[in-house]
Structure formats: structure tokens, C-alpha cells
Amino acid sequence: MAKDYAYSPQIKKRIRKVIQNFANVLEASAGSHDDYLRHLDIHKDDDANQIRELYLRYRDHLAKGVVYFLAFKNTSEDIPGKLLVKIGYSTRLEERLKEYKRCSIHCKSNGSGKTLLQIPKRSLPTPAVFAHLLERIFQTVLEQRQYDYLCKCDTNHGDIFRFDPVHGISDEFTAAKCRVMDLKKQFEKWAEIFMGPMGLESLHKEVLSIHGPLLKRIEEMFKVANIRL
Ligand SMILES: [Zn+2]
Q: Fewer CB atoms near the end CB (10 Å): N or C, the chain?
């Protein structure tokens, strides 16, 4: 269990809060969405945005996916020499990595992203349940390293974390990989809480049966109204 790791009381408190906020969303009853949607008119832009926001929130909360770590090229003058690592989650990792072509990341020869680490492991075909929560927990554990990085894609990526260089390793990608490997065991233990034999699979199935229909319903609403979701 992750209790093997000596998190500060502050980080523990933050992790608890992240889990609590996540649970609060999933504890809403399915009926409360009916009421909410009934008062919105999809043909009004503001209302359509609210419905979209609800859709994205539940889509993220219910998603099964992969948490990935990417090495960024540090072009920032603020923190020379630091190694930059992005932590994200995706339900379609291969496509997501291609989208990073326009970012300052270390790429494969085809230009797409190259991960330092994936959780669950690449060899495991099953994605992680509640992958978005897993991502948020990792980000919370590292929050003191968080750095707002203005990327060459003109986005201020907030989910980037900075690490000290590794003595004797000048290659940024290899050095970042070393730093991430130091964290691997810890993060795999978290993944085990979600996906292991005592994991959250059945809880995930349950909340999916409660809130999954909401996603279908909203997709249908946008389709009928002929509006892009
Ligand atoms: Zn970028």
C-alpha cells in the first residue's frame, strides 16, 4: 500500500481531498442529472456549454485508461538544467501521443511522443479503472515540483513537473527516465490499489451502470440537435 511512502501530512491531506472530490461527483444520484438537464436548452450556447461540461466531467471520472509520463525539452530560461516531465492520462494513448507532435517533447522518429513510463505497464492490455483519479493522485504527490511550462505549442501546460539533473547523464530523455524510474514502484503500488485483486473494478462497474447512461443521453441530445459535442 502507498502507506509505505512517507508523504508529508500536507500531501496526505491533499490526496484525501482529491479522492473526496472525485467521490463526490460519483455519489450524485443519476436522477439529479435529469433535473439539471431538464432546465437547460441545448440550443442556447451557454446551456450547451454547461451540458458539455457535465459530459466531460463524467467522461473523465468514468474513464478507463493509461497514465503516461513524457519528457519535455527544457527550453525555459527560468529553470536551466531542470528535467521536465509531463503526467497525463488518456483513453487512446497512441492517438494522444501523436497530438504531442507540436509540443517540445522528446519524440520517436515518426514525430510522436515517447513515454518514459506507462501505468498500467505496456504489457498489460487492461486499462486502469478511474485512470483520471490515478493521474490526479500522482500529480498531487509531486505537486511541489509542479511548473507552469509555456510550450512551443503556445499552451501553458500545468501538468509538468521539474526534477534535478542526474549526475553523469547529459541526455535529457535518459535522465528524466531515471528520475521517473525512482518513482515507478510507488506509482505501481497506487495502480495496484485500483487494479489489483482487491481493486476498484467492481466499484467502477457499479458507478458506470449508474452514470454511463448519462453520457449516452447527452451524446444523443447533441446528435438530435445536430450540434457538435
Ligand atoms: Zn505543448
A: N
